[in-house]
Amino acid sequence: MNEVKLIPLSHNNDNQIAIIFDYNEKVKLHLKKLKDVKWSNTHKTFYIKYSSENKKRIYNHLRAINCYINYNELKAKKSISSPITYIKLPQLTEKKKEDLQKFKKWLQQKRLSENTVNTYFEVTVFFIKYASLKSTTNYSKRLIESFNYDFIVKPNKSISYQNQCINGIKKYLDYLGVEVDKLELKRPRKDKKLPVILSVEEIKQIFETTHNLKHKTLLSLIYSAGLRIGEAINLKIRDIDSKRMLIHVKSAKGKKDRYTLLSESFLDLLRVYYKQYKPSDYLFEGQKGKQYSNASAQKVLKIATEKVGLKKRVTLHTLRHSFATHLLENGTDLRYIQELLGHSSPKTTMIYTHVTEASIRKIKNPFDNL
Fold first, then answer.
1. Contact (CB, 8 A) for 227 and 320
2. 253: which DSSP letter?
3. Could you tell me the sign of the dihedral formed by the alpha carbons of 173, 174, 179, 185, in that order?
4. d(Cα 221, Cα 225) in Å, to the nearest integer?
5. Model confidence over 67-93: pLDDT tens digits?
6. What are the φ/ψ torsions at residue 285 (nearest 5 degrees)?
7. Cβ atoms within 10 Å of 24's Cβ, excluding its own
8. In whole angstroms, what is the distance from residue 4 CA to residue 71 CA?
9. Which of 12, 163, 169, 321 is the most exposed place for a label (fewest CB within 10 A)?
10. Torsion angle of alpha carbons 4, 10, 14, 19, nearest 10°?
11. Active-site residue numbers?
12. 284: phi then psi, degrees, rounded to nearest 5
């Protein structure tokens, strides 16, 4: 039974109900069917307007797919939201709105991703409102630190979100022509978590369990080439170079092109897939010839891991992590792995030295000498 938490949330200057649950495609798709449920990029959660009627609607809707509804925090009127719950932020003037739209266009001209633009824009809107509340247009370090505490630290937002917020404010100050370096805005360090790695046997089980040819080909591509999911679904037929046995990854993270490996075994599978599905442009196409979606790919892997019975928290990126780790365990030079993955810094690739099974096995455990 999937647990869903209902938590008070203040968003868009109104009381809302945040709908929190561990990622589950079935719950997500079912929730989207409920009228008036929306997604917040700011809070990274689904939500609906706070009312007794909506509480009942959510409860009945999710119970239909056997979810356990936890609304203890809703009854206790606790909140994990931003300080908007406690502080009524003022509305923006028309001039400010126009200026912020110009800022958004300025961000888009920097060729940042759509998600990054939206995140930077949203946090800047809250920051400007916060400054208006404090009756100041002096965007000082002290004001930013105060905003950071009230908006991010106090409501216990993640370190990743805090870094995004600081980056967004820095971009806005840069847009205004303010010397950002003089403010000495520092970002908190992220937790250094090691990636989840699948063994070669677990990878085999996933592929053997996936019988749909398109699904199997997609998962095999991500693992065999060490691709990010966005890179895989953006691949076009012409990006496969079977003569040189390379895959041309274009405009990847950081707007960089690179080449990665084309496996001989995967090429055999790809040819079978191509003859059956006959894609016209993108290597993987969804309905009506459109690009295959990220959500569909995640769902494919989730079904496969459930069939295998894996208890690890596996995502599509886990296949990429496993590709890199298995290369390292087979003796591939770390510099080559860095190139194949498209990492800018060798420090990023070094993380795989901490999870290689071969290296750990060489260490003699002192307990065995007792």
1. yes
2. T
3. positive
4. 6
5. 888 877 776 544 334 333 445 677 888
6. -120, 145
7. 16
8. 8
9. 12
10. -10
11. 228, 253, 317, 320, 343, 352
12. -120, 120
**Mean pLDDT, the chain, integer:** 84
Instruction: Classify residue 98 by burial, with Cβ atoms within 10 Å: 0-12, 13-18, 19+.
Output: exposed
In terms of C-beta density within 10 A (0-12 exposed, 13-18 middle, 19 or more buried), how is residue 318 classed?
Answer: buried
The answer to whether residues 151 and 126 touch, using CB atoms and an 8 Å cutoff, is yes
Q: Scan for tokens 């028309």, then name that residue.
A: 94
**59: helix, strand or coil:** helix
Do residues 180 and 170 lie in contact, with contact meaning Cβ atoms separated by under 8 Å? yes
The burial class, CB within 10 Å (0-12 / 13-18 / 19+), for 219 is buried
| Share of the chain residues as helix, strand and coil, in percent rounded to the nearest 5 | 55, 10, 35
In DSSP notation, 311-363 reads -S---HHHHHHHHHHHHHHTT--HHHHHHHHT-SSHHHHGGGGGS-HHHHHTS
Structure tokens at 135: 């009756």
Q: Would you identify the CATH topology of the domain 3-81?
A: Translation Initiation Factor Eif1 (3.30.780)
Structure confidence at residue 80 (pLDDT): 38
Note the pLDDT tens digit of each residue in 241-279: 999 999 999 877 767 899 999 999 999 999 999 999 999
Contact criterion met (CB below 8 Å) for 219 and 300: yes
Q: Does domain 94-183 have CATH number 1.10.150?
A: yes
Say if residues 321 and 196 touch (Cβ distance below 8 Å): yes
242, 267 in Cβ contact below 8 A? yes
Fold: same for 3-81 and 94-183: no
Least confident segment among 79-83, 183-187, 281-285: 79-83
CATH of 200-360 given 3.40.220.10, 3.40.30.10, 3.30.450.20, 1.10.443.10: 1.10.443.10
Cβ–Cβ < 8 Å for 129, 115: no
